[in-house]
């Protein structure tokens, strides 16, 4: 904090390559309406979706990103007092006008305003005070909650326990998904499509052996597409083409709306993915597609998570911190985050100081002020 406002990571206008670099800038403290909360973020995560926004792959226009984190309440309301530790469920299940860090200012800042409508909708979630500076919870609670939600839907929609699981993507969501599935179904064989070629159960997406590896999987098969927006359709059509067993696919990664050509015909997969939002439906929605000469394809996805998923993730990170610690690859302050983000964007390489940026967390120095 300064005498004139608060510091934040603010996006520059996009350059010729479409990328938005960031600067540490001082912003005016936001004016509050009755019932609003003013938060002081303590820890914020840098998410794969944030990278997509900064690269120009998504149209989100918030000048300050950040939808994962924990914060201290500075100005409270009836439900929350100053000093309370909270996290914010970033996706409003019924109001597309609130998507934290996407279309409203996010948590990469020393202050964040949360509108009263969001507070009244129950999207501000109490966090144990002992977690106030827990970088694992701040950076990983939301993506872990998303992986938990995906598994919950899968277990509700598949008819038989899968003998094989394909996780397409070994970024943070892919690794968290692999971990929660492994814990729930330790006998299910996993194949990871990603960068870590040193592992016997991991193969690159461009490996010529991938089609035969997919075809040889024991069925029934489930899959989690933990993909960037640009890769989701290719991942789905590859699985659909080469796996003849009954196949259940969690379209975790985003994709553009419109028809996708599958063996069963054209399907608006984005609409299927959006049918589950924020855990609202007690009966998860999936679409079953019959495939000639092959087992059925069941598609589902989700947007956002419920507060219960967030609480489950916080509990898992608290009880099993050692399991997840290696996934947090960088912890830095605002200035260091600007250097990391701009370096990755300018180099086109997800490495910083010689280490892959799998998941980074930002500690906000002024948060307690």
UniProtKB/TrEMBL annotation:
The keyword DNA repair does not apply. Keywords: Oxidoreductase. The keyword Membrane does not apply. InterPro entries: ADH-like_N, GroES-like_sf. Residues 34-118 form the Alcohol dehydrogenase-like N-terminal domain. GO terms for molecular function: oxidoreductase activity. This is Alcohol dehydrogenase GroES-like domain protein. It comes from Mycobacterium marinum.
């Amino acid at each position: 904090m300064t005498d004139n406002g608060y510091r934040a990571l603010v996006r520059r206008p996009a350059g010729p390559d479409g990328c938005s670099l960031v600067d540490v800038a001082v912003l005016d403290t936001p004016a509050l309406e009755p019932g609003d909360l003013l938060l002081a973020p303590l820890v914020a995560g840098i998410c794969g979706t944030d990278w997509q926004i900064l690269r120009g792959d998504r149209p989100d226009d918030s000048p300050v990103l950040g939808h994962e984190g924990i914060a201290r309440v500075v100005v409270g309301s009836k439900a929350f007092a100053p000093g309370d530790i909270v996290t914010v469920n970033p996706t409003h299940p019924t109001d597309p006008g609130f998507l934290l860090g996407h279309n409203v200012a996010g948590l990469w800042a020393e202050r964040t305003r949360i509108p009263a409508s969001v507070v009244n909708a129950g999207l501000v979630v109490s966090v144990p005070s002992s977690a106030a500076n827990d970088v694992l919870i701040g950076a990983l609670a939301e993506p872990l909650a998303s992986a938990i939600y995906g598994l919950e839907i899968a277990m509700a929609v598949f008819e038989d326990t899968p003998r094989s699981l394909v996780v397409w993507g070994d970024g943070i969501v892919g690794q968290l998904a692999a971990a929660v599935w492994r814990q729930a179904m330790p006998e299910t064989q996993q194949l990871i499509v990603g960068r870590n070629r040193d592992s016997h159960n991991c193969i690159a997406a461009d490996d010529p052996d991938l089609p035969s590896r997919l075809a040889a999987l024991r069925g029934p098969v489930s899959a989690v597409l933990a993909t960037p927006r640009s890769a989701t359709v290719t991942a789905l059509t590859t699985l659909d083409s080469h796996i003849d067993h009954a196949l259940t696919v969690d379209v975790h990664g985003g994709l553009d709306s419109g028809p996708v050509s599958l063996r069963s015909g054209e399907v608006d997969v984005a609409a299927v993915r959006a049918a589950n939002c924020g855990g609202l439906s007690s009966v998860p929605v999936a679409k079953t597609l019959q495939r000639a000469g092959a087992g059925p394809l069941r598609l589902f996805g989700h947007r956002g998570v419920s507060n219960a998923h967030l609480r489950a993730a916080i509990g898992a990170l608290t009880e099993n911190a050692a399991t997840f610690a290696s996934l947090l690859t960088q912890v830095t302050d605002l200035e260091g985050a600007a250097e990391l983000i701009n370096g990755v964007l300018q180099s086109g390489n997800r490495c910083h100081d010689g280490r892959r940026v799998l998941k980074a967390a930002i500690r906000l120095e002024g948060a307690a002020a």
